[in-house]
Amino acid sequence: MEQQHSVWLGSLRKPVRAAMIGFSGLTIALSIYLIFNSSIGMHEMIRPQGKPIVIVTLISFALALLFASLYLSDDRGLIEPERTGPFDILSLVCSRLAMLSIAIVVIVMFYEVVSRYAFNAPTMWANELSLWIAAFLFMLAGLYAMQQRSHIRIYVIYDIMPRWMQKASDCMSVFLIWVFTACLIYGGYNDAVRRMLRMETFGTAWDPPLPGTVKPMILIVILLVAIQALSNLIADWNKAPEHHSPADEIDEHEIELIRRTLEQDKK
Question: What residue ranges are annotated as transmembrane (predicted)?
């Protein structure tokens, strides 16, 4: 049954799900151990040298996120269109990673609020960690928006064009995206590599390597966005002309859920 609803994993769906559960359980168990181990704190989590338990925890956490992203990307959301190319798979996996990142940010901020106001023991790392995660979240969300074709587009003029002119406009848009990508990589490559090689830190008490990780990630993601834009262009090339209206923005599923909620409240 699961294989019938699989988007792309097919027979690998169950092994990926088992790996997700296994590594998630291992990560939780190791995290609980580290929480009650007073000699290891968040300072050591980004400086794991000489602490094998921290390294194992980080590897387990990374694998849990990877397999969770793979497994969750194998389900198509109610408002998500069918994937149109092989590169869409990478974008969908990154989108699920971004969705998981939101949950992690919420957990981090909840921990900070409880520590600060319930126990009068604010952390030195929650703000930096949430900024760190949010930086990757926003970039991956941009890649997902491109794959879903949900980025800002103005259809007033586009819809009245003949199909050949629409194709020309799409080609121009993708060309400009690639020009911007090339300029950004050309101008920022050396700086990004320099920051990454020395793992430049943020300069705070916790001192995470935000510049050393975020700057290279910006170049990587903008390149992925450009590739996704080209993939969209190829996939949409032979499509029939589309006409858009405000009704396209209506989420029928969301309206149905609201209607059911209102009916339940009346009862």
Answer: 21-40, 52-72, 93-111, 131-147, 168-189, 217-235
